[in-house]
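This week, study the protein below.
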Amino acid sequence: MPSEKNGETEKPGEADGKLDGSQEGVAKLNGPAFSDRQKTTNSELNQLEECSTTVEFASPPSDIDEYVDAFHDGEEVRFRRMDNLVGNTVVPGLTNRLLDDQELLFVSAEEPSTFAQAERDVSWRRAMLEEMKAIEENETWELVDPPPGCHPIGLKWVYKVKRDECGAIVKYKARLVARGFVQREGIDFEEVFAPVARMESVRLLLAMAREMAARFRMSDLGQLSYYLGIEVKQGRDSITLCQRAYAGKLLERSGMADCKSCATPMEERLKLTKASTAAKVDATLYRSIVDGLRYLVHTRPDIAFAVGYVSRFMEDPREDHWAAVKRLLRYVKGTVDHGIIFPKTGDGSELRLTVFSDADMAGDIDGRKSTSATAACQAVCLRRLLGELTGKEARPPALMVDNLPAIALAKNPVLHDRSKHIDTRFHFIRDCIDEGHIVLEFVESGRQLADILTKPLGRLRFMELRIKIGMVGNKQEQQD
């Protein structure tokens, strides 16, 4: 029975009642489910009940005061059925009505930040209904009576549009998420852990999918074409990853959409220092653009060194640092359609990782440090992941190094007096070799692919290595 007060029935703002229509339960959510908290008269409630016999509201428990503890007292607790949190029935706050001119500004193309904005659009209403249906089908939660002294965490609607590689909207997504930020460490939780996939793992999975001649599918949504801003182009014999749309937006945001392109991302032998005496530039803009370039590196290893180099000066950027960023953007402008390709070898051989490692010689003029392409740790992790995906132990990766003394030191079990200054952590690779996790092999300097990741190169050498590491453009991809 609905609770009445002064001849009126309070509008249920948040959840609860009987989820399946037969068993009662209490699920308290401490934030309003709707934008307003207007009250509903008895006549409106009767109209609501006539529209659908499945809509029922549970009265608050008699001992409701016990559910408000010392850390959350004073907050209103509201109750509403979860199976009609958002529905087609005439619910106060969700009734069909004409929109005024100001409300028409909230169009479907925008992502609403509140329920009040989302409920005005049929696309977002449909997305919320789909979310509630999925929650019920997956049996995401079970309604129980909260123990005394505990205050349940509230829920909030979060809205996001999913776009294709051209930027067109393909889906409206609404997610009902917990307001975990109201929890207090030591009271509501002790430890937190949020696993996140590394981009190296994603690239390995895509490469392996094509190598095994499998169509990579994502649930029942069809062939994967767009993932976290990355365009995935699946051909008969290859998979190509590209961020053309993202790169275009980055150029527009930096004001470089109409700039002239250049052949390399960085001048050969360019030297920049943190002690620059040039004029200061907008640090916020500098960091924003460089951060955007860092995400672009996921499918553009050809700009990895240049992006890492300009990232060193984010604390106090100057005009010469900004000039290097603008040159990098000019290169992106000319190669906006470039991406990395994972071809199928087709020889039926077993998958094996090949890793290249190199370093420049004290290239940092500030600290005299070397830029190193460390690869042993990632090689070991990717080998383990590859074994888990294939169901059998993967072959040890080949670590290609162009320094014979370094190879001798790694393989020689005897430490010489002249090598005692090397910290013990640098001998991790020796343990990996002894245990068979990696195989150290020599490669000529002319075939060292890691050069493009550790130093600025001239145009010819840069373009040669860019092709060898698997970078292609749309035109080249069509020719292949």
